[in-house]
């Protein structure tokens, strides 16, 4: 008897439609950049070091980024194989990176005299990127930013300020694809923040927008930070990760950056769990991207041009494909399994406990797919002839594509099964 498919509500159907591109994109660029970049010691420096506000905002006088820096970010994102970008329009420090009419602390009215949101949006669109805007709900500098917790009049003023800024961002820059909230402090719940009213306004202005869960409403997707942790089945999720332990600019040595192999491993783990990967860069005060990040992103992009089919599109979550020791991980699309080879097995590869009627096996290479011979029985799937060394000389990560007539599975029997990071 066929299993009945649950009928989706209108809200669920609307979400499914607007999330389609996001699920297929898989990999995005996060950009933390603002006055804190001039300090170069983490984006929370003004708070953690108790820097006086007069001293902090005086930094705006020396904030003179080079022309076209946003174009460099967008070109790098495209070269890296990233499909969307999220830019910090205002971080917790209250310095707005656009010409906000409800604040005097902006990049347009102070030092730079530029609307960086406008520059970013234009640059992202030039490169075919989906456009995301980050907005911090907390504002350390605003006179009512903390007072709003206990003073009703202060709360009204602060909410008017937040809603006014969001209205500007949703009205003045064309189509916006993502609204990325952060830190709903100090108000205790969504009702106090008037989040339903606010998000209704946002969606009225941007009908197709995707909203994250950091505004105290679940909305469209969950956002674990600096960890790979899947949301419950059926719930979209995105891991946001730093390159070097800091969101804002820090002049750290090359060895402090996650290397390209590790980033690919995280991308595989996230894709296996059905999630997205939002990898952060913290540009320098002049807007340039630190060279260690550029080198790694460029290498990852070259790899994805060849092997991207194992990542992009509607990759199925998990699917009962358990890792093979420490060298084979998986992603799956329907009846096709992709074996990610972190360590090269040699000229012959054997995968025990593999189930699913195998139709074709191929090795993806820079020169195109190469058909492999295979033998499949109840014990294992054997594949040959493989080259002696990994065909990917860029990062050393290989992909074997296994096409089946039914959903492939690999479940160990009688032994402890290794689990992916997100479980």
UniProtKB/TrEMBL annotation:
The keyword Hydrolase applies. Its EC number is 3.2.1.51. Keywords: Glycosidase, Hydrolase, Signal. One of its GO terms (molecular function) is alpha-L-fucosidase activity. GO terms for biological process: fucose metabolic process; glycoside catabolic process. GO terms for cellular component: lysosome. Residues 6-309 form the Glycoside hydrolase family 29 N-terminal domain. Pfam families: Alpha_L_fucos. Alpha-L-fucosidase is responsible for hydrolyzing the alpha-1,6-linked fucose joined to the reducing-end N-acetylglucosamine of the carbohydrate moieties of glycoproteins. Belongs to the glycosyl hydrolase 29 family. This is alpha-L-fucosidase.
């Amino acid at each position: 008897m066929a299993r009945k498919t649950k009928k989706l509500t209108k809200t669920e159907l609307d979400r499914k439609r607007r999330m389609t591109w996001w699920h297929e994109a898989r990999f995005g660029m996060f950009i933390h950049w603002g006055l804190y970049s001039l300090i170069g010691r983490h984006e929370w420096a003004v708070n953690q070091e108790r820097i006086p506000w007069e001293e902090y905002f005086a930094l705006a006088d020396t904030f003179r980024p080079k022309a076209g820096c946003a174009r460099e970010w967008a070109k790098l994102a495209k070269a890296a194989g990233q499909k969307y970008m999220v830019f910090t329009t205002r971080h917790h420090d209250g310095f707005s990176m656009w010409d906000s009419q409800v604040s005097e602390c902006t990049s347009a009215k102070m030092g730079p005299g530029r609307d960086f949101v406008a520059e970013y949006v234009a640059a992202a669109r030039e490169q075919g990127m989906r456009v995301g805007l980050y907005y911090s709900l907390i504002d350390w500098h605003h006179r009512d930013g903390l007072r709003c917790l206990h003073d009703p009049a202060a709360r009204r003023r602060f909410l008017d300020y937040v809603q006014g800024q969001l209205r500007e961002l949703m009205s003045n820059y064309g189509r916006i694809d993502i609204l990325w909230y952060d830190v709903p402090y100090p108000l205790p719940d969504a009702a106090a923040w008037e989040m339903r009213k606010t998000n209704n306004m946002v969606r009225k202005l941007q009908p197709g927008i995707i909203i994250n869960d950091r505004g105290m409403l679940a909305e469209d997707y969950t956002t674990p930070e600096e960890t790979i942790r899947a949301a419950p089945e059926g719930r979209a999720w995105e891991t946001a990760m730093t390159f070097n332990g800091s969101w804002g600019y820090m002049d750290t040595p090359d060895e402090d950056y996650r290397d390209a192999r590790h980033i690919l491993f995280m991308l595989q783990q996230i894709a296996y769990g059905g999630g997205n990967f939002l990898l952060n860069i913290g540009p320098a005060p002049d807007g340039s991207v630190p060279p260690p990040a550029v080198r790694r992103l460029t290498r990852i992009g070259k790899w994805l041009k060849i092997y991207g089919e194992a990542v992009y599109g509607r990759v199925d979550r998990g699917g009962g494909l358990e890792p093979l020791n420490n060298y084979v991980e998986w992603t799956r699309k329907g009846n096709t399994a992709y074996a990610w080879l972190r360590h090269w097995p040699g000229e012959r590869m054997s995968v025990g406990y593999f189930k699913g009627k195998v139709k074709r096996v191929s090795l993806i290479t820079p020169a195109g797919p190469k058909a492999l011979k295979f033998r499949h029985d109840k014990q294992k799937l054997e594949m040959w002839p493989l080259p002696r060394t990994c065909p990917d000389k860029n990062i050393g990560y290989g992909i074997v594509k296994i096409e089946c007539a039914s959903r492939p599975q690999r479940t160990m029997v009688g032994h402890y099964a290794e689990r992916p990071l997100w479980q």
